[in-house]
Design brief:
Growth Hormone, Chain: A, two-stranded antiparallel sheet, about 0% strand, mainly alpha, about 425 residues
């Protein structure tokens, strides 16, 4: 793995840690700023709102800034947001700080995905993007449990401080290892927005919102489901969540090579298997061993879907993929909010703690339907050109420049469904 990809993975690790660590520290944060735990839960929404707003806005503002410089600026904003979170004296300022910390999230992943895809040969682009996403999945295994433990022992502010340190390490790694990738002459906000007008981009984003909403319908209520139905103690849930992260890591590793070979079939298979896993969890949640096995598979299939959706959006946006790649993470956060809301409605309606599994399965099937719709629209049409940057040059693994003319990855051969 090129050191530049490792630097991008460190960025993703910091993002994943700060995004999910708040959930494990809500009681401590609530006590620290003098609010109730449910009220403190709005901090999670503040971060998600920052992601939804920041992805398109910051990507648009930075549309003419060279990729490396933009990554450094966004990482600096990430560090500032987490330092502000650690120092916030009251709930209002902490809410604003969490919103600020979320602003660069989507843009960092979007620009990072484009940069990662240009570090390797075209037929390995999805593998490179998935290597960056590994930082996010490893955060669920190491970063989130460690951040939660640190916050519980030394105070919740120390967790945000530690994330800021991770951000500084990532900033240094990006400066040292990521090569310069200048923008092309056609770069700019209008160029990016025109690419976003593609119907396939809209369908891809809808697929992410609906299909990935199935994943979050269960993930949002996984801890109460395990304690109420499986009989796992509160003290053991952190280890179970880490197991979930193991599954996500495996799914990410598998998705990269498969997406390079056949993009759409990989997406179809991921959504279908995610739906099947969610239905299975409805029945296995009452048994500890079978529940843990299903949870691992659920994590794998949730992460498995991420890479083909990301690559599909970059392909359909053609030579202006950055806005589409960043907006994908806005879509994931909308999926987070929507899936959690629908799962909560099912529980509130008296359908039981296991009901979010069936809600999630229905969302995954709906997402699969949207993905198939996009595939059918492609039939008989012009094969998509995977152009991962509007810059005139790209960098290969060996560090040599190659022409960035239209190139079709092997994954596109299977993309037309």
């Amino acid at each position: 793995m090129p050191l530049a990809l490792l630097a991008l993975a460190v960025v993703a690790f910091g993002i994943g840690t700060t995004e999910f660590a708040t959930m494990g520290l809500l009681p401590q944060i609530a006590d620290g700023v003098g609010v109730s735990v449910p009220h403190a839960g709005n901090l999670v929404s503040a971060y998600a709102l920052g992601v939804v707003v920041g992805a398109p806005v910051l990507t648009g503002i930075g549309a003419r800034i060279p990729h490396k410089r933009l990554l450094l600026l966004l990482s600096g904003l990430f560090v500032v947001g987490n330092i502000a979170s650690a120092l916030a004296p009251d709930f209002g300022l902490l809410f604003a700080a969490r919103f600020l910390a979320g602003l660069p999230h989507g843009a960092l992943f979007g620009v990072g995905a484009v940069v990662a895809s240009r570090l390797v040969a075209p037929e390995r682009a999805a593998r490179a993007v998935s290597r960056m996403f590994l930082g996010l999945t490893v955060a669920n295994i190491v970063g989130v449990p460690a951040g939660t433990a640190l916050g519980q022992q030394l105070g919740w502010r120390s967790a945000y401080g530690a994330v800021a340190v991770i951000g500084l390490v990532a900033l240094a790694a990006l400066a040292l290892f990521v090569p310069d990738q200048p923008r092309g002459g056609q770069s700019g906000i209008r160029h990016e927005l025109r690419a976003m007008g593609n119907r396939q981009v809209a369908i891809g984003l809808a697929t992410a919102v609906v299909g990935f909403g199935g994943f979050f319908a269960v993930y949002s209520y996984l801890v109460p489901m395990l304690t109420h139905l499986t009989g796992i103690s509160d003290s053991s849930t952190t280890l179970v969540l880490a197991l979930y992260g193991v599954g996500m890591t495996l799914g990410t590793l598998i998705a990269g090579p498969l997406t390079d070979r056949a993009l759409r079939p990989t997406l179809y298979a991921g959504l279908a298997l995610l739906a099947a896993a969610l239905v299975t969890f409805y029945f296995t949640v009452h048994s500890t061993v079978s529940a843990l096995l299903t949870i691992t598979f659920l994590g794998a299939m949730g992460a498995f879907v991420t890479t083909p959706v990301q690559m599909l959006l970059m392909a359909k946006a053609k030579n202006a993929p950055t806005m589409a790649a960043a907006s994908n993470h806005s879509a994931f956060n909308l999926a987070n909010a929507g899936g959690a809301w629908l799962g909560g409605l099912a529980i509130s309606a008296g359908w039981g703690w296991a009901s979010p599994s069936l809600v999630g399965a229905a969302l995954a099937v709906a997402g699969l339907g949207l993905a198939f719709t996009g595939g059918l629209m492609d039939r008989g049409g012009r094969r998509s050109e995977v152009i991962t940057s509007s810059a005139p040059e790209t960098s290969t693994e060996a560090g040599h420049a190659t022409a960035a003319g239209p190139s079709v990855t092997p994954g596109e051969r299977g993309e037309r469904g």
